[in-house]
Design a protein that fits this description.
Elements lengths: L1 H4 L5 H10 L4 H13 L3 H4 L2 H23 L1 H21 L3 H26 L8 H30 L4 H18 L15 H5 L5 H32 L3 H4 L1 H21 L4 H21 L3 H14 L3 H12 L4 H10 L3 H16 L3 H28 L1
Helix pairs in contact: 2-7, 2-8, 2-9, 3-11, 5-6, 5-7, 5-17, 5-18, 6-7, 6-9, 7-17, 8-13, 8-16, 11-13, 11-15, 11-16, 11-17, 11-18, 11-19, 13-15, 14-15, 14-19, 16-17, 18-19
């Protein structure tokens, strides 16, 4: 990552990963919105869906549009959509307007993740792609880590956590201006898209399908762990929502640290081997959360899951791009469709929690995601090795 920073045109690309991290605010925001509007556990579980459902609906169309407009233009479009979304609840804080903000945040973030990851390939070579993508995840994780603190700061200084949206709007505008003023080598742009059918034809490639499902479940695990972190502290330690946000902070700081270390290790270590080691450690941490009954143990478990799962997304994504480099735009769009896991997993967690009567229900759903990822690490690794 440090060598990337020395290249001036990489700085705005990496900085825009900070905007990408805004979608993770939905974790702590769910607790605030649930409290402010008196929502049930099941209904609150659908709040993350307002953000992440757009990855399912818009990823492939966005990738096809990117073939025409180019990667940098699509990133700038995402910045504009995000900026508008962040301004809405600042001026009108009602359940409907908050949901509208999350919808626009999801649309903007979908377009951003489709275009920003491939745009990074415009300033870095394929041999360092896993490390570079993990570097972007460090910046994204820093943004996610700041969210609970910014919400707390907005509440204590301005009297309401909603001022967080105004802060995000200002940062998004800054990102737009920085990128606009920077020249980035432009990729060859196709005059016509390959079509939605051709994009979904990638499912016939078993490696791509395997990695796509891995993206689906790692994002579900990430959003799910972020969401349940505060709820575990509220349920088991009787903390108020303001103090329970500490769980999300610990999760994100550990995820940031894990991604930062991953940048260095992935440049020296086999991707799949690194993936296997981290996922087994994450499984041990998840097992701890089932039995943790006090705040220190809960925070250790939450932090460990964040740390050991921090590089999973970037490894799976880079493996997909390397598998079919001639289809990088289409693969980017298709793989980002898997981010819809963040829309599917939290409602399942909410339903399971309500059925069982405790947050152990949420942990069961997250654990099933982790089981698939361990399977994916071995199966996809073997298939990639066979292909090579």
């Amino acid at each position: 990552m440090f060598s990337l920073i020395r290249k001036h045109n990489a700085i705005p690309v990496l900085a825009t990963f900070f905007v990408m991290g805004f979608c993770d605010v939905v974790g702590i925001a769910t607790s605030y919105v649930k409290q402010d509007f008196g929502l049930s556990e099941t209904l609150a579980g659908f709040i993350p869906s307002m953000v992440f459902i757009w990855f399912l609906l818009l990823s492939v169309p966005s990738a096809l549009l990117m073939n025409r407009l180019g990667r940098k233009t699509m990133v700038q479009i995402s910045n504009v959509v995000t900026l508008v979304g962040m301004l809405i609840p600042f001026f009108s804080y009602r359940l409907l307007t908050v949901m509208a903000a999350f919808v626009l945040l999801g649309i903007g973030n979908t377009i951003l993740q489709i275009s920003l990851n491939p745009l990074l390939t415009n300033v870095v070579g394929e041999s360092r792609l896993s490390s570079a993508l993990t570097g972007g995840q460090v910046v994204k994780a820093l943004s996610s880590f700041c969210a609970p603190f910014l919400a707390l700061l907005a509440g204590s200084v301005f009297g309401n956590w909603k001022y967080l949206f105004a802060i995000y709007a200002a940062v998004t505008l800054l990102s737009f201006l920085l990128l606009q003023l920077t020249e980035i080598p432009r990729e060859e742009v196709s005059g016509k898209g390959t079509g939605v059918g051709a994009s979904f034809a990638l499912l016939k490639d078993k490696v791509i399908l395997m990695l796509f499902l891995g993206i689906f479940f790692i994002v579900g695990l990430d959003v799910g762990t972020n969401t349940v972190s505060a709820k575990l502290l509220i349920e088991r330690c009787m903390l108020p929502v303001e103090k329970a946000s500490l769980g999300a902070s610990v999760y994100f700081i550990c995820r940031t640290a894990g991604a930062f270390i991953g940048v260095a290790l992935l440049s020296r270590m086999d991707d799949i081997k690194y993936l296997k080691i981290n996922l087994f450690c994450a499984a041990a941490a998840m097992a701890l959360l089932f039995f943790a009954g006090n705040m220190p143990l809960i925070l250790i478990g939450i932090g460990a899951v964040g740390f050991f799962c921090s590089s999973v997304f970037s490894v799976l994504f880079s493996q997909a791009l390397k598998a079919r480099p001639e289809k990088s735009n289409e693969i980017s769009g298709f793989m980002i469709t898997g981010v819809a896991g963040g829309a599917v997993i939290p409602p399942l967690m909410g339903v399971c929690t309500q059925l069982i009567g405790s947050q152990a229900g949420s942990l069961i759903v997250i654990s099933l995601c982790l089981v698939y990822l361990i399977f994916c690490a071995f199966a996809a690794g073997q298939r990639v090795a066979t292909r090579e």
